[in-house]
Amino acid sequence: MVEIVANKRPPRGLIPRLRRALSALMEELGVGDKAVTVILTGDRRIRALKREWWGEDEATDVLSFPHYEPGDPFVPPHLGDIWISLDTAKRQAEERGVPLEEEVLVLAAHGLWHLLGHDHRQEEDWGGFRRVQERILAL
C-alpha cells in the first residue's frame, strides 16, 4: 500500500500515477504486501530534515526514513517514509527537460530502493538505483 501525503500541492494527476507506479514497482520487488508513505513537500521542510538527521544544511530531492534496520530478518508491514521536495524535483525536471511527474516517479523509486537497504556510496552501487528508476517510468 502506498499512502501519499501532500504538504505542497502537486500537479494534477501526479498522486494517482505515483500511487499506481510505486505500488507496481513494490510488487515487482517482492514487497507488494508492505506499505510506504510518500510525503510531497518543499525545500524548506526537506532542508530542515536533512539538517536534523544528516547534519547538512541544504535542501535535497529525496530522503528515506526506514522503519526498520535494513538487513534485519524481520521486515515490518510499513517499510518507511519517502520525503520528496517538489521544489527541487521541479528544478531537476527542468534541467533534464522532463515533466515534473517523471522526476517525482524517479525520486520515489530511488527512495524505495534506499528503504530496501541499498545505498550509493560507490559508483558501482548506482546500478540498482538506475534499474528501479528506469523501471518505475515503464509502469
TrEMBL record:
It comes from Thermus scotoductus. Keywords: Cytoplasm, Endonuclease, Hydrolase, Metal-binding, Nuclease, Ribosome biogenesis, rRNA processing, Zinc. This is Endoribonuclease YbeY. Belongs to the endoribonuclease YbeY family. Its cofactor is Zn(2+). Zn(2+) binds at residues 110, 114, 120. Its EC number is 3.1.-.-. Single strand-specific metallo-endoribonuclease involved in late-stage 70S ribosome quality control and in maturation of the 3' terminus of the 16S rRNA. Pfam families: YbeY. It is found in: Cytoplasm. It is an enzyme of class 3 (hydrolase). HAMAP family: Endoribonucl_YbeY (MF_00009). The gene is ybeY. Its main location: cytoplasm. InterPro entries: MetalPrtase_cat_dom_sf_prd, YbeY. Binds 1 zinc ion.
